[in-house]
Design a protein that fits this description.
Number of helices: 4
Order of helices and strands: HEHEEHEH
Helix content: 40-55%
Strand order of the largest sheet: 1-2-3-4
CATH class: Alpha Beta
Number of domains: 1
Low-confidence stretches: none
Radius of gyration: 14 Å
Distance between the termini: 38 Å
Length: about 120
């Protein structure tokens, strides 16, 4: 699988670095590597292993006082989630998680801070 190193990838790296260096959330922060092109064989194998198209980029398993955890989809500036991504976020909301998306670093960090009451 080839990962495209573009703005979204750089933003994801920066988000994880911020989480790792500025919070105590690293052990509950997971990135789902849904980026990249896959051949038919790899796509079939990934699906058999539980791969979910549309799964958000980040999952924070630590709950807050209202939600079971936090899902965040990261998009390039000006881009919006796909239909599958929106459906995934809606399922997570129905399951008691907070699920949202952002197209810039500052809003992601603001969301994490507000969700976990980080100064």
């Amino acid at each position: 699988m080839t990962i495209k190193v573009g703005n979204e990838t750089v933003m994801c790296i920066n988000i994880y670095e911020w989480v790792k260096n500025k919070t105590d959330l690293e052990s509950s922060c997971f990135h789902f590597c849904n980026e990249g092109k896959r051949g038919y064989v790899n796509a079939a194998l990934l699906k058999k292993m539980g791969f979910k198209a549309g799964a958000s980029d980040y999952f924070f398993s630590r709950p807050n006082k209202v939600f079971t955890g936090l899902w965040i989809e990261v998009k390039d500036a000006g881009k919006k989630p796909t239909k599958q991504q929106r459906e995934f976020m809606n399922r997570m909301l129905m399951d008691g998680y907070y699920a949202t998306w952002f197209d810039n670093f500052d809003d992601v960090i603001k969301c994490i801070k507000e969700f976990y009451l980080i100064e």
